[in-house]
Design a protein that fits this description.
Elements (H helix, E strand, L loop, with lengths): L4 E7 L3 H11 L6 E7 L6 H4 L6 E4 L4 H11 L4 E4 L4 E2 L4 H10 L4 E8 L4 H17 L9 E3 H6 L10 H9 L6 E9 L2 H6 L1 H16 L4 H8 L6
Parallel strand pairs: 1-2, 1-4, 2-3, 6-8
Antiparallel strand pairs: 4-7, 5-8, 6-7
InterPro entries: Glyco_trans_2-like, Nucleotide-diphossugar_trans, Trfase_2_rSAM/seldom_assoc
Keywords: Cell membrane, Glycosyltransferase, Membrane, Transferase
Subcellular location: Cell membrane
Amino acid sequence: MKPRLSIILPVLNEGECLGVALQALQVLRLDCELIVVDGGSTDLSLAMAPPLADKVVSSPRGRAKQMNAGADAAKADIFLFLHADTALPDGSVDLITKVIEDGWNWGRFDVQFDAPQPIFKLIAWMMNLRSRLSGIATGDQAIFLTRKAFEAVGGFPDIALMEDITLSSRLKKLGKPCCLRAKVTTSARRWQRHGILKTIVLMWRLRLTYFFGADAAVLAARYYPKKHQ
């Protein structure tokens, strides 16, 4: 039976959260396929994935490369790209299939953080508002789209960072995104580890410099933690 949805998780040294993430997705495997794409993990990520996924794909390192490899292996006509540290809301598959049936080519969820501090509620609100106004989605918001739309824009651009921003810009030419108000819950670990203000400034600086033509590989070196190098 053809799956309703292909859920694609790019991973690299995500052993600390991958097991929990995959366990939470098991109920969806009844009519969806779950694809883990490993970019060369040196921890336990690759070992824990096979029993909990329908497919485990090895790919060259790089989130764009990994997500494209997952799409190549997918059987469904709808793709959902999900980070390992992001959890879907209840009823997410039904929501996605309904908006696709209604004629949308692509979309994303609102986001919330798994930390209780009020500052994270503000950050999430700003992220969701910015996305709704700009029509640009980020990977943390669990981007979903049809296979047809994915192929029409050539998949994710093979760049080291901002692949989600660039994909969104290309998809906007096919139509605006469906911005679901249902919330995925993503980890606040990067913000907590590196400092909230410092992370906000870094993200805005990276986006601004990318907008003005900076090399994505140079920006990636500033963004990713050492475990991803």
